[in-house]
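Structure ticket #2291
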Amino acid sequence: MYRIVLEGRGDFAEWRNAARACLLAGISPAQIDWRCRDDSADLFGFDEGSVLPAATGSASFSVPSAFVPLAEAVICHSDRARFALLYRLLWRLRDDRALLQFKSDPDVVDARYMEKSVRRDSHKMTAFVRFKEVPMAEEEVGRRRFIAWFEPDHFIVERKADFFQRRFTDMDWLIATPKGYAQWDGETLKTSREAAEKPDLSDEADELWRTYYANIFNPARLKIKAMTAEMPKKYWKNLPEAALIPDLILSAETRVLKMAAKAASEPQPFHHRLQTARANMPAPELPDANSLEGLRDKAKGCTLCPLHCKATQTVFGEGPAHADVMIVGEQPGDHEDLAGRPFVGPAGKVFDQTLAVVGMERSKLYVTNAVKHFKYESRGKKRIHQRPDAGEVQRCRSWLTREIDLVQPKLIVAMGATAVFALTGMKEKLSDLRGKPMPMDGGRLLFITVHPSYLLRIPDSAKRYEELQRFQDDMTSIRRLVDTGIVV
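Resolution: structure written out below.
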């Protein structure tokens, strides 16, 4: 059995040199007793001059890149078992370089736990170090000096010294802990692993901290479990405001009741001034209720069916107020729901491209949908389109009817079965109605075709091309109806 004695105060190089010598000498983990020098009782009678046997294996070896940062963190842990744990991992990595990827391996689990504990302790150090200014003698001229006391669980001072140097580079400071200290004088950052004595840091600033904390403490938002998780009780003794916490917790309920009673009292004088100023403001100009803008504004608050609960917004129609041709689709899709405009997603791109091919301008068309809210189901991060049912179409029909009354189009193009049902109430097969102009009330025509989204769902490329040609033919027929003056 070989006994290796280390200072054990977070020096990775110290452990690394000893571990390398043992590994090259072929000494198994079971043959090594790792100890810290301050284990005086355990080291009684032990000869520290023992020499490890000469190396019998290869003169060099390598480890996976992930092992070094893991070991550098674990070596800072205060558990004395860390030395043996790291050496076992090192020994096993010779035969299995993928060992660290096995998250269920007991040694890997223990190492990751120690690493996490060291990182958490480091985070708490950045949160709870409180500097106090050190008075300077009258003859001293220079930068202000500060000192702080902190009691970490692990040997993390060297790991976090650079953080404090970057954060407080404009002042001289000393952070003292039982596990080492760090000092910055404006030019040189000095660290030591030697334990420091706790200085007397009480001053008049403590009362200022307590006053500040008492005023920002909100009893209505008190969550004791969350508070103690973020600010564990072991740090309280070095935080001046922590002395207030027990009383603040005990009085929280009473303070909440007082806050509620005060909230019901007469408002502050400035509230009356605000109300008076608001009353004197000119009323905003609302759009004419009998115009498209007025109808669009009213539709923003539509709650006629449950679809408004999940949709981002109402997607109303857009286009000239007196367009000769109105395009009616099914409902807005994911892109339309986010943009607040109809036909701007993938199906809208097919629609725009087809218009360009047949020589029509979208700016001269009024484009809308039978249903004004996006109906979908969530699958992970995606929102998958769902077809609106008959009840949802019927509840939304009033908006479409008012659009038709205001725009007064000569030709309405119904894209898809949902649009046909919303406009006519018919549920016949779309293929039986497609491409045949039909008379409607008001002396206008109805032309029925497929919705562009149908073309995107066809898996067979040849079939998709064929249907795209048919859709272009339908749009060409619509252009001819306009060009021949039938709808004007």
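Closing remark: Residues 43-51, 54-58 have pLDDT under 50 and may be disordered.
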